[in-house]
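Moderator note: this is an archived Q&A kept for reference. The question asked for a predicted structure of one protein chain; the sequence and the answer are reproduced below.
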Amino acid sequence: MWITKVFAADITIAQPATVKITEIGTLISAVVGTMLILAALITFVYLILGGIQWITSGGDKTAMEAARNKITHAIVGLVIVGSAWAIMALVQNFLGISIIGSGGINLPKPYTQ
């Protein structure tokens, strides 16, 4: 007869880290950055699915056309996401504010001596 002993260990469950957003600029910056990343990822997945659909079309004209349209739409989506990022970077550069980044939207301070 085998005797098995089970030892109970003290298990401490940590509380999940909470995100505290104290400024609206930080919230907007986080949302914009997250949306740009998600849009780029979704576009990339859509491009891969179009490529798989093209490969598996087997020479069928309608399936190849649908795959070509999917790839074209994915490339247009990627151009739109890239353009949105470039516009945000230009706005940051010309106006001297920080929109995309960890600092949130930082408006320039008035010059004082």
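Archived answer notes: The mean pLDDT is 77.
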